[in-house]
Structure formats: structure tokens, C-alpha cells
Amino acid sequence: MTAASAEGSAPPLKCEFRADAPDQHLVVKGDTLWDISGKFLERPWCWPTVWGMNREEIANPHWIYPGQIIWFDRAAGRLRLGNKIDASNDGSNSASNLRLKPQLRTEGLGKDAVTSIPAGVIEPFLTQPLIIENDELAGAPRVVATQDGHVFLGKDDKAYVRGDLKGGSSFQVFRPGNPLKDPITKAVIGYEAFYLGTLKLQTEASPGAGSDVHTFVVASAKEEMGKGDQLRAIPPMPMQNYVPHPPEQKVGARVVAIYGGVTHAGQNQVVSINRGKLDGLDIGSVLQLYHAGKTVSDGTAAKSWLGMREQQVKLPDEEVGSLFIFRVFKHISYGLIMQVSAPVEVGDVAKSPE
What we know:
By secondary structure, the protein is mainly β. The chain contains 5 helices and 21 strands.
């Protein structure tokens, strides 16, 4: 059975229900939207399509809570959200005993709601400056001196900073690391950033008094920080109830780096790709991962009479998994590998689902 397409969505994608899809699923604590989708669908990213969501509903989804029921409406080819009305009745598991109108709970602001993906895996990537793009690096305030000339700073030490704070008072401290290069163009599109800790503004600079230096206090120290390290404003914590969906426009990307400095990545590992918000990606976008097909010589074909050279042919890309985009910068994005059939490598292809 093929799922119906969502209103206002891009051209229909091939969304197939699993042959062994259940009639319903009782949501329990620990479930994720991706896990639930996988019980019903061959490709979990088809969730908004079979839910009948439009783009606005994808951006502002209804909360789903433990105790609610996801019901498979086979006739319509849709999934629907219901609440148990009377769990004590023998027929409580039937469709007639489900209230199928989606409920939006406001109490607790979704505190107990089901998340889309395992939140604990990506939490450090939501709050720490692990990628710094070129424009951020050029304009970042920097530590120019330390309290009493100390080489390194610890908690509650003073740090002296120069640069435009742009009205901010709380900052993260980072140290630029390895450059991130586009696998195709070889251009540097950003830098890995070593997160060192946080600083809190104590006294803003007074140019009228002859000094353009701000005084900060170390609020937290994860690693040793010191002279030359740079600052960026602490970003707001983004909402974690992302709805998985294909990008609104066609995206073709490559894996730039694997977090942790390893050469291969598997399920629940984080990678960065060379496309971002300016390329049409947003939080919740899902891309398919492929090993890029190699270019090989075709020794079986007739050789060209010009130099008797063998023909070069490119082998097809091979699909190996799916990538859930959870943090988006201008030209770079972070994605969590959701499922994979072979290890992911730098240079692998990530593109819109087909």
C-alpha cells in the first residue's frame, strides 16, 4: 500500500507501509517518532506524508504523549492519533474506542512528549559551538589577557576580552581546530571548534575611560582556556520535537567530517555535511546516505583508436542508510545517522530521498 501525499507538499515520494505494519501502536515512555514510524513504514521519514501534515504542521507539530495510540487507517492510507477512552472494556483496542482527533497539550510545554530522535545522543551538539563558519571566526571577540598573567583560566577567574559583544553578556569560549573542506571544491567552508567553557560579562569596556577591554568571569570550564581563545554568544536551545521530512527542495551533499576524528561512522553517530540553510535544509530534514560510486576502467569495451585508452565509467551510488539533520548552519549541517547497512565515510553522498 502506498501512503497518500500531504497537502502542500513537494511531489509525492514513494512511501510504502510495511507488510507487517500493526493496526495500532500504544505510545510508551522511551519511544521516539522515528521508532514509531519504523513500525508502520518502510522509510520512517515518510511520517508527515502518512500523517497528512502540511508544511506548517511539520514546523509546529502536535505533541504526542505516552498513553496515546497511533492507529493505522488502512482504508485511507494514513496514520492517526487517538486517545484511549476506556481501557477497561474488552473492546478498548478497537478503532471505535479511540478518540481520533489530535490533541495539543499545553501543560508542561511538551515536557513529557515523545521526541523525534534520541535526544541524549545529540544534546552536546545543540548547545556547543562544534562548527565555526568563516564569518563567525573573523568577527569573534577574543581573550587578550588573563587574571594575574595566568597561562590558563579556571572557574571564577577573570578574563579580559576585546571585540564587539553585540549586546551579549553570556558567551561560549572556543578554540578553532581543523579546517573543514568541501570534498568537491576543496574550499574551506568552516572549522571544527573545541568547546572550552563559558564566560559571563562582569564589566563592559569603557572607551571613554581609555580602555576597549571587557572584563569577564569564567562561569564554567570544560577545558583549559587562555589568551587567544575566542567567544561566541550562547545560542538558544532549539526545540527538540522535530518532525522528519524530506527537504523542500532537492539537495545533494557530501559528508565532510565524522565527529570524534574517526574514519568510519555507524548508527547514532554524528557527521557534518557540506550543505546548510542556504541550500534548502532545515531542522528535521532527512537525507539518504550513499557510498559514492567509483570511476573505473571498462576493460571489456572496445578501446578508443586515439591512444588505445580504456573507457572510464562511474559505478552507481549505493544506498547505505539515512541521515536526520538536527542542526543547521549557513553552509554546513549536523546529521545523526539513523540506520545504516555499511559504515559511512568522509566523501559519502547525502541527498534527498527518492
